[in-house]
Design a protein that fits this description.
four-stranded mixed sheet, 10 helices, single chain, 36% helix, globular, six-stranded mixed sheet, alpha/beta
Length: 308
Amino acid sequence: MGRIGVDLYPLQTGVPLERVETFGKFLGGSPSNVAVAAARLGHRAAVVTRTGQDPFGTYLHEALREFGVDDRWVSGVPGLPTPVTFCEIFPPDDFPLYFYRQPKAPDLEIRTGELDLDAIRAARIFWVTGTGLCAEPSRTATLDALRHRAKSGTTVLDLDWRPMFWPDPDSARAPYEEALAHATVAVGNLEECRVATGESEPGAAARALIAAGVELAVVKQGPKGVLALAADGRSAEVPPVPVEVVNGLGAGDAFGGALCHGLLAGLPLEQTVRFANAAGAIVASRLACSSAMPYAHEVTEAMEGGLV
């Protein structure tokens, strides 16, 4: 549940946006990419979101269906344009993002009265992001969906901190705390953990997320890999998979879809994190996000080979 839009990515790397001549058009938006990633791994997935009533909105419906993602809960908002996002590509670690979500993104117009709460409660995994908490009515709808779900199945909060969507970090703390109280899994990098909990040391951040109410905390540490800590004391710290980075955007969404795969399959914690790491590395080696999501055999090959 949450963000969707159109990614317009340069087809030239190492070139500033003002000099880019050609772009590729892709489905985008973190939770929508996670749904695509899960579908690529063989799972039934759907997205709860909203688009503009415009050609880009039509494109997103078509793209979701092509990826095997159910779009029945994707609705249009009159008068608001479908968001577009541009990026610059400077491998290996500089990928500035430019969001065009004015005057307001349709995915922030999700309302509680329009939610299929029975479907949300019945899902084996329900994935929401911090972006959905940044404005009303999406904030209330997201929290109402989490309350109704009442921790049935697996409920994931992807912290997804985007500073340009909030007045300041302090304004995000209370909504994050309320959402964490209803989640069973939290996923975030060190900066996102700092905003949500005040802690940026990996171990302390993971323990703070557990204390906030989740059963599993997954802390991304960049070049140091991923730390996962469960409330029952299980833990795993997994190094990254070596990769020649083409575009680092979307790697986290591939990680998320693969994390869902591991949780659904009941894999051991370390194996789940290793699988998710490998999926993220594969997408980092490719230009796009949604269309770059790997199939299970590709992830297995990367795990067995130890590199992408």
